[in-house]
Amino acid sequence: MKFFVDTADTAEIADLAATGLLDGVTTNPSLIAKSGRDFMEVTKEICALVDGPVSAEVIALDHPTMMKEAEVLRKIADNVCIKVPLTVDGLKTCKALTDDGAMVNVTLCFSANQALLAAKAGASFISPFVGRHDDNGFDGLDLLRDIRLIYDNYNFETEILAASIRHPIHVLESARIGADVATMPPAVIRALFKHVLTDKGIEGFLADWAKTGQTILK
Ligand code: G3P
Asked: Which residues, including other chains, have CB under 8 Å from residue 57's CB and lie 6 or more apart?
């Protein structure tokens, strides 16, 4: 399972990239606004921090303008992945861009039928919003299960990118279901490393080691 971080905070991205476990980055207009940075400038910086895909979202709602915006975004770096909303115009744009060799992430997916359309449009990634689905009284993980089943039925190559992940159990369940990628806020990625018994075990081992009076490094 690939791990993407869902943020436009370059310090967080650099820190997580240093673990060697970060496979990509997703951003959206809300995360860009939160960063307070210039969209083009921060996206370029992020693309240099990771080798994997960096999703940058178009703002236009009509196909011709989406294509123009995508043309600008594609020039930022080779690892830019154009993010388009799951609308008729978004999928028209997805089809045109993927036919032209671009990576495309189709976002704001809330139904398995939408995911089926995105796969038919050649999307590189489909982003079902697990947490927002839960927030509205639906089961976000059931949505992932349905998409996995449908994509496997037809051998679609579109990768399932579990988005709007709120906590480690979402990550665990997404991995059980077989999502190809999870994009998570930095705090959720950090939480995956933690276990109270790991901390307690280290404390005990260090206390016993101190009694030996030895060092490994001479
Ligand atoms: O990047 C899209 C998605 O991950 C947003 O998550 O928490 O704002 O629903 P959230």
From this structure: 27, 28, 29, 82, 83, 84, 85, 107
